[in-house]
């Protein structure tokens, strides 16, 4: 059988570092929040170029909280990609909004930007791109669409929340499920 994911080689490369981190957590018995989470939040915020980052229990909750922070709710529409996983749609629906699925670009399997413009209505409140398979969505056209929708000249007035889901089958070395916003 061919495994869906193989983390053994990556694990061997960082085994000692991971073992030390797990030992620190177990020795302090601080399994929720604590110094290790705080240190990761600061390091991750720096990595993504933000002042702050907050760890949450899952990528679903990270998406939900970002949408709620934007005021997304009943009757709103959120455009996202059709080949996303269930948690993306669940986060949208959980706010009371309606997911609007757009097709993908066949060569990248990412959000087809040309489909977004066709899908925008008066009820559209957000575009939720999904970076997939280690390939990031080209954000520049999305920012332009957002500026046009909001009628603003400055991207600083747009609300952009980098949200990450850490899950072993994804393209990162991870041994548990959690999210980050």
Describe the structure.
The protein is an alpha/beta fold and 181 residues long. It has six helices and six strands; from the N terminus they run H-H-E-H-E-H-E-H-E-H-E-E. The strands form two sheets. The protein has a three-stranded antiparallel beta sheet, covered by helices on one side. Helix 4 (86-94) links the parallel strand 2 (77-81) and strand 3. It is globular and about 55 Å long.
Topology:
Blueprint: H1 8-28, H2 34-47, E1 55-56, H3 59-69, E2 77-81, H4 86-94, E3 98-102, H5 113-119, E4 124-128, H6 139-150, E5 164-166, E6 178-180
Parallel strand pairs: 2-3, 2-4
Antiparallel strand pairs: 1-6, 5-6
The largest sheet, given as strand count, sense and whether it forms a barrel, is: 3 strands, antiparallel
Count of beta strands: 6
The average pLDDT score comes to 79
Low-confidence stretches: 152-159, 171-175
Could you give the order of strands across the largest sheet? 1-6-5
- Percentage of residues in DSSP E strands: 5-15%
- Series of secondary-structure elements, N-terminal to C-terminal: HHEHEHEHEHEE
Q: How helix-rich are the residues, as a percent range?
A: 40-55%
Q: Could you say which overall geometry the principal axes of the C-alpha atoms support?
A: globular
If you compute it from the alpha carbons, what radius of gyration comes out, rounded to the nearest whole angstrom? 18 Å
The oligomeric status of these chains comes to single chain
Helix count, DSSP H or I runs of 4 or more residues: 6
Distance between the termini: 36 Å
What structural class is derived from the secondary structure elements?
Answer: alpha/beta
């Amino acid at each position: 059988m061919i495994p869906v994911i193989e983390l053994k080689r990556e694990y061997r490369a960082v085994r000692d570092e991971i073992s030390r981190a797990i030992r620190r957590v177990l020795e302090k018995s601080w399994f929720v929040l604590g110094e290790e989470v705080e240190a990761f939040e600061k390091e991750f915020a720096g990595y993504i170029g933000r002042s702050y980052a907050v760890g949450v229990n899952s990528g679903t909750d990270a998406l939900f909280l970002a949408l709620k922070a934007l005021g997304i709710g009943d009757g709103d529409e959120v455009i996202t990609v059709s080949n996303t996983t269930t948690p993306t749609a669940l986060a949208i629906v959980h706010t009371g909004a309606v997911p609007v699925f757009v097709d993908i670009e066949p060569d990248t399997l990412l959000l087809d930007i040309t489909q977004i413009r066709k899908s925008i209505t008066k009820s559209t409140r957000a575009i939720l791109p999904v970076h997939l398979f280690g390939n990031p969505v080209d954000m520049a056209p999305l920012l332009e669409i957002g500026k046009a929708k909001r009628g603003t000249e400055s991207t600083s007035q747009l609300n952009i929340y980098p949200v990450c889901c850490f899950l072993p089958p994804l393209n990162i070395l991870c041994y548990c499920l959690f999210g980050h916003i």
